[in-house]
Design brief:
The structure is a homodimer. The first copy, chain A, is an alpha/beta fold and about 325 residues long. In chain A, α2 (about 25-40) packs antiparallel against α9 and α6 (about 175-185) runs parallel beside α7 (about 205-215). Helix content of chain A is about 40%, strand content about 15%. In chain A, about 50% of the residues are buried. The interface between A and B is large, with 42 and 42 residues.
Chain lengths: ~325, ~325
């Protein structure tokens, strides 16, 4: 595919941080930013800006908070713009500096459909401070159509720059992605829409391709697919699919070899059957992550039955 | 998706054998067959029937040859039919017993487009002996359209039961699979067509879904995706996608846990960047497999450049 307007966002440090409490060391993050800048990424997301009244810096690494001085140690002004993510309900508005005092360019507000009013308030604040703003609607597979439609209708009326379709649990297959993307395109005229997938059923890249075919103009990826549980869409695969000469996949390949192959041995993201089970049953991966830490061997078939049957409600 | 006519073929032992010279022990293969029979598979492919004048039983395990007595030790008559694969040019016709003296039901003839005449001769022999017969056209991504069209035209005129579309190098993406499947459907009226994918770009399952959407009525999978290099489409994922109550994924989940998680540690199939590189460049994975065995660290970017530039021809 060649659609030159498609922009790429890397969220290696932000989503990968879910696997190590954002304890990536600064020299490594600096190399990652530099490699991604050379690869021509449009945006590099370096973490969350979490409220320190809710999360302690003693428990989490710097990329949970993305203090301005930490960002400036690893990133530099270039064509690759720095992004951070703010969770609705976990953000201290006072930590959002005016954009001209910050190295951050894009703020992505992560919300569930039912928190959209608070997401709009936070987004307005970020816009007023001068940032480009995205609203990322998480866990769409747990929302009713009516809830999602109402949420999209509200977003369509704002000056928010981008809206993301997020398959939080790695549940959707290609047919379903097609359906949702057609909805996003029709309900959000004039806005960019992006796609963020998870790999529980090994569909992160396939679903990203489908979304790009159906009109998404932004795609998220992470180096070597790092991310919570089964991980995300591998950036190196989207880059080569796009066939856009302004992207150079080679710095990303070398980052995989230098850092991420050994990190994967340590942190163990990627395809595993317990993650596939939570994915196909449209559930959060936390039960799978717990199962994989247990020492007693519960049969996977029993785990599947438990999750499928739920509590009989 | 629910298309009750879709049939599933497992080729765990046949394709997985490419990673260990078919040295699976009989007790394990017996358990695999039994689990797959309980899971409701339509076909279980237990290996190749290679010519012992060309391949020595001293060098290869029993599933390279699939002697009748070995098959009968691990399989039993049931609704899951035994399949074997014969490579064009590597098959001793005299080893194809009359079907009523064999536990084998389906023979799959693997061919390149240019060997189709010999594939037709072998297929006729197998049909005459009483077998169901499939022709699997390998390496379609290396054939010209004209070659493929001529091959399909010849196959359309035969009484061969099935024809498979095979993405040998894990090169195709979803758009391309759509194109080829529409071709197979239109050029092979009245025949079943099947899909066999490889996972170099993590598209094995996504491409299988696309083929099933576009009319394939047979799909191949392997347990936990075992197969050469990046491996194949994970059977457990296709099974749950099909939503057909005659399939029960649970025995497959338990086989993963019992055998295939530890086998993967040993044999190391699955997504790796060198396999992604050969896949996206439409090349055989042998160079990637060699790279991964080397001890000196050639940068992946250099490997990519070498393969991309070829010899300048």
């Amino acid at each position: 595919m060649y659609r030159p307007e498609v922009r790429l966002l890397d969220c290696t440090i932000r989503d990968g941080g879910l696997m190590n409490n954002w304890n990536f060391d600064k020299a490594m993050v600096k190399d990652v930013f530099d490699g991604l800048a050379k690869a021509g990424l449009d945006y590099v997301e370096l973490g969350y800006r979490a409220d320190k009244k809710l999360f302690s810096p003693d428990e989490y690494g710097p990329w949970r908070f993305c203090d301005e001085e930490d960002l400036r140690e690893v990133a530099y002004p270039c064509d690759s713009k720095v992004s951070i993510m703010c969770d609705v309900g976990r953000t201290d508005y006072d930590t959002i500096l005016p954009a001209d005092e910050s190295i951050v360019h894009l703020i992505r507000v992560a919300t569930y459909v039912n928190d959209v009013e608070e997401a709009l308030r936070l987004s307005r604040h970020c816009k007023e401070q001068g940032y480009e703003v995205s609203v990322n609607i998480m866990a769409v597979s747990h929302a009713t159509e009516a809830e999602l439609d109402a949420c999209l209708e509200k977003l369509a009326k704002t000056d928010i720059d981008m809206v993301y379709f997020v398959d939080s649990f790695g549940f959707f297959n290609i047919d379903q992605v097609k359906y949702y993307c057609e909805k996003y395109v029709s309900r959000l005229p004039g806005k960019h829409f992006g796609v963020h997938t998870h790999n529980n059923q090994q569909l992160a890249f396939g679903n990203t391709i489908e979304a790009l075919q159906k009109g998404a103009s932004l795609a998220d990826g992470t180096i070597y697919g790092i991310g919570r549980a089964a991980g995300n869409c591998p950036l190196e695969l989207i880059m080569s699919y796009l066939q856009n000469p302004r992207f150079d996949v080679r710095p990303v390949l070398d980052l995989v070899q230098r850092y991420f192959e050994s990190l994967k041995q340590e942190l163990r993201w990627g395809y595993e059957v317990p993650y596939a089970i939570t994915g196909l049953l449209n559930q959060h991966p936390r039960t799978a992550m717990a199962l994989m830490k247990e020492t007693d061997e519960k049969p996977y078939s029993a785990f599947y039955d438990e999750l499928k049957q739920g509590d009989g409600a």
